[in-house]
C-alpha cells in the first residue's frame, strides 16, 4: 500500500522488531522470523536526550494542529457569513488534519521510538486504516476547492454547488477514502517476536509481491499524484485568468475589489497545496526507494531519517490554520475572536464586522430605507398634485 502511513512498520519489520503499523509498508511473517533469528536486541535504541527532543517536536505538531484546526472549524460553523462552499471543504480538510494529529501522530511516534506495539490488534487495524482515509479526505478536499474556484472564476455563469451538494460531495470523498483504505485494515495483524510485538500489514505473498506493490503504487497515485495534477491544471488556468491580463481602467471599484478578493483566496489555497505537497513528498519517496531496495531500512541511521520524514509529513496538519490566519482577513478576525481571552490580543470593531452578517444587513437596510424614502417623497408629491387638482376642480365648479 502506500506505506500505510507509518514508516515505522517497514523500518521495524525489516528489523525484525518492527513492522509497519500505520503505513502500508508491511512485511511478511517469514521475513520477521528470519530477521528475529539474527538479533534480539533493539539496534534503534536512542539516548534519553534524543527521545526528549523528538517528543517535544511531535508534541508541537499535536498541540498546534488540534488547537488551530478546531478553531478553524469553529470560525466557519459559528458564523453564517463564513459558510461558503469553499469553507465547507476547508472544514472537512481541518477535520481530517485534526483527526490525523489526534489518532495517528502520537501512536506512530511511540512505535517508531520503541519498535514495540503496545496498543493491541484493534488499534493496529485502525492505525493502518485511518491515516490513508484522512489523507485522501484532505487532499481531495483541496482538489474540490480548486475545482470550485475554477468554476467560479472561469465559468461564473454556470450553476455553483449548493450547500446540500457540497455535503454530498464531502460524504462521497469519505466513502471512497474508506474503500481505498480497507485492505490496510483487512490484512493488519499483530505478531509477537520475542521480546516485542509488531503491528504489520500481512499482504498475501512475500514482502514486495505484486499485491503489496500494486496497492502501494495505487495509493501514491490516488492520494498524491492525481489530485496534485488536478490542482496544478485548475490553478494554472485560474491564475492566468486573474493575473494574466490587465484590469480594465474603466472598471468600477466593486469590480476591482472582487478581483482582489478572488486573487487572495486563490493565493491562499495555492500556498496550502504547495505546503501539503512538499511535506509529503519525502515520505512517498522514502517508501518508493524502500520498495526497490529494502536494505536501506536496516541502516543504523534510518530511524532518525524516518522520524524526520514522518515529522515533516505529520506537520502538514498544523500549517493550514497558520496560513489562513496570515493570508485571510476574516480568518484572522476569527482567530482574534477565539483567543480574545489572551491579554495581548485585541479585537477591533473591524474584526467584529468581518464575521458578522450585520454589515451586509445594514447595507441592505440602508439601501431599502433610501428606496422607501424616495418612494415616500414621490407619493407625497403625487398626493399634493392630486389634492391641488381636486381643489382646482372644486373651484371651477363653484365658479
UniProtKB/TrEMBL annotation:
UniProt main location, coarse: membrane
Pfam families: 7tm_1
Keyword Phosphoprotein tagged: no
UniProt keyword annotations, A-Z: Cell membrane, Disulfide bond, G-protein coupled receptor, Glycoprotein, Lipoprotein, Membrane, Palmitate, Receptor, Transducer, Transmembrane, Transmembrane helix
Mode of membrane association: Multi-pass membrane protein
GO biological process, any: positive regulation of flagellated sperm motility
Gene Ontology cellular-component terms listed: plasma membrane; sperm midpiece
Cystine pairings recorded for this chain: 124-199
Signal peptide from the UniProt entry: none
Cross-referenced SUPFAM superfamilies: Family A G protein-coupled receptor-like
Highest taxon of the lineage: Eukaryota
Sequence ranges of Basic and acidic residues compositional bias: 383-399
Subcellular location: Cell membrane
Protein family: Belongs to the G-protein coupled receptor 1 family.
Name of the protein: Substance-K receptor
Organism: Tetraodon nigroviridis
Lineage: Eukaryota, Metazoa, Chordata, Craniata, Vertebrata
Gene: tacr2
Amino acid at each position: 500500500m502506500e506505506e500505510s502511513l507509518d514508516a515505522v512498520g517497514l523500518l521495524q519489520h525489516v528489523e525484525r522488531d518492527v513492522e509497519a503499523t500505520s503505513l502500508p509498508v508491511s512485511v511478511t511473517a517469514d521475513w520477521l522470523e528470519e530477521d528475529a533469528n539474527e538479533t534480539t536486541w533493539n539496534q534503534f535504541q536512542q539516548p534519553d536526550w534524543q527521545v526528549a527532543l523528538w517528543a517535544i517536536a511531535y508534541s508541537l505538531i499535536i498541540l498546534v494542529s488540534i488547537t488551530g484546526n478546531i478553531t478553524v472549524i469553529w470560525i466557519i460553523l459559528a458564523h453564517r457569513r463564513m459558510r461558503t462552499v469553499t469553507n465547507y471543504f476547508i472544514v472537512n480538510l481541518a477535520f481530517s488534519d485534526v483527526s490525523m494529529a489526534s489518532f495517528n501522530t502520537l501512536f506512530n511516534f511511540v512505535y517508531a521510538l520503541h519498535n514495540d506495539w503496545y496498543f493491541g490488534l484493534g488499534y493496529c487495524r485502525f492505525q493502518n486504516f485511518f491515516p490513508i482515509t484522512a489523507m485522501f479526505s484532505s487532499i481531495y478536499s483541496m482538489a474540490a476547492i480548486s475545482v470550485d474556484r475554477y468554476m467560479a472564476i472561469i465559468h461564473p455563469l454556470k450553476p455553483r454547488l449548493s450547500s446540500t451538494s457540497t455535503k454530498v460531495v464531502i460524504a462521497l470523498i469519505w466513502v471512497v477514502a474508506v474503500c481505498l483504505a480497507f485492505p490496510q485494515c483487512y490484512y493488519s495483524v499483530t505478531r509477537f517476536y520475542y521480546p516485542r510485538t509488531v503491528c504489520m500489514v500481512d499482504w498475501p505473498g512475500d514482502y514486495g509481491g505484486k499485491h503489496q506493490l500494486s496497492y502501494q503504487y495505487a495509493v501514491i497515485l490516488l492520494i498524491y499524484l492525481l489530485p496534485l495534477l488536478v490542482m496544478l491544471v485548475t490553478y494554472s488556468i485560474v491564475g492566468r485568468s486573474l493575473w494574466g491580463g490587465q484590469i480594465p481602467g474603466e472598471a468600477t471599484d466593486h469590480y476591482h475589489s472582487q478581483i482582489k478578493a478572488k486573487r487572495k483566496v486563490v493565493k491562499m489555497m495555492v500556498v496550502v497545496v504547495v505546503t501539503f505537497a512538499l511535506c509529503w513528498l519525502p515520505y512517498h519517496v522514502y517508501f518508493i526507494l524502500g520498495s526497490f531496495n529494502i536494505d536501506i531500512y536496516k541502516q543504523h541511521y534510518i530511524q532518525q531519517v524516518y522520524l524526520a520524514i514522518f515529522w515533516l509529513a505529520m506537520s502538514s496538519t498544523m500549517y493550514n490554520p497558520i496560513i489562513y490566519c496570515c493570508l485571510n482577513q476574516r480568518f484572522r478576525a476569527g482567530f482574534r475572536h477565539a483567543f480574545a481571552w489572551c491579554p495581548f490580543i485585541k479585537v477591533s470593531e473591524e474584526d467584529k464586522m468581518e464575521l458578522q452578517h450585520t454589515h451586509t444587513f445594514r447595507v441592505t437596510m440602508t439601501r431599502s430605507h433610501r428606496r422607501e424614502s424616495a418612494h415616500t417623497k414621490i407619493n407625497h408629491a403625487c398626493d399634493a398634485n392630486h389634492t391641488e387638482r381636486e381643489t382646482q376642480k372644486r373651484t371651477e365648479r363653484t365658479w
